[in-house]
Design a protein that fits this description.
about 220 residues, alpha/beta, Rossmann fold, 3-stranded antiparallel β-sheet, binds zinc ion
Length: about 220
């Protein structure tokens, strides 16, 4: 059973949903660096305060600091994880490798959810999110419109501001400039760990392929 997993993919490829599925099906903690950063910052820890210094200036938290926060999480929670959208840059990937090496460990699966750009655009423009619980739903698939009640918590559904075309172009550019080199890095350094999954299939089918890859052959 694979327990140290990196899950990468473009916007709308379903990373968060699949990471949640794996997490509850196999009891592997789902770790998002955004949530870790927020938690350190809310607790006012030294690392959280250091991160605040950057975010308060409107700057990205530096790669080495992100990885220090992830390493601290691993030291406290052990080495079973599914990282969703992390590492985001090659520097983070390199730092993560050294952090794991220092713990006499390494990744055991890198999953890339692949989705054509046309499908990314279609999914984003069709997406509604809940203002309260943050769940997202395909409007067409679930027969929902903006203003309808969230199927999970009954709060109103809205189209997210960052789902507009200009914001999406930016996210796709960030993906091409930062994450695609991460994929190339893993392809070169850990070709046997990298597994590509077609995310254009339905969520259940994607999960089934993921599950097959999680179980050791
Ligand atoms: Zn909701």
């Amino acid at each position: 059973m694979k327990k140290r997993i990196v899950l990468l993919g473009p916007p709308a490829s379903g990373k968060g949903t699949q990471a949640d599925h794996i997490s509850s099906a196999y009891a592997i903690p789902h770790v998002s660096t955004g949530a870790l950063l927020r938690s350190e910052s809310e607790k006012g820890t030294p690392l959280g305060r250091e991160a605040d210094m950057w975010t308060s200036k409107g700057q990205l938290v530096p790669d080495d600091l992100v990885v220090r926060i992830v390493s601290l999480w691993m030291a406290e929670h052990g080495q079973s994880f599914i990282f969703d959208g992390f590492p985001r840059t090659v520097r983070q990937a390199v730092y993560l490798d050294s952090a794991l090496k220092a713990l006499h460990s390494s990744l055991d699966l890198i999953v890339l959810l692949e989705l054509p750009e046309s499908e990314i655009r279609r999914r984003i423009s069709d997406r509604l999110s809940c203002i309260k619980c943050g769940a997202t739903f395909g409007a067409t698939l679930h027969d929902l419109s903006a203003g309808d009640a969230c199927p999970r918590c009954a709060s109103p559904l809205v189209r997210r501001n960052d789902d507009n075309a200009e914001a999406l172009d930016k996210r796709l550019e960030v993906f091409r400039n930062q994450t695609e080199p991460v994929i190339a890095y893993y392809e070169e350094n850990f070709p046997k760990l990298l597994c590509r999954i077609n995310a254009a299939h339905g969520s259940d089918e994607v999960f089934a392929s993921l599950a097959r890859n999680l179980v050791d052959a």
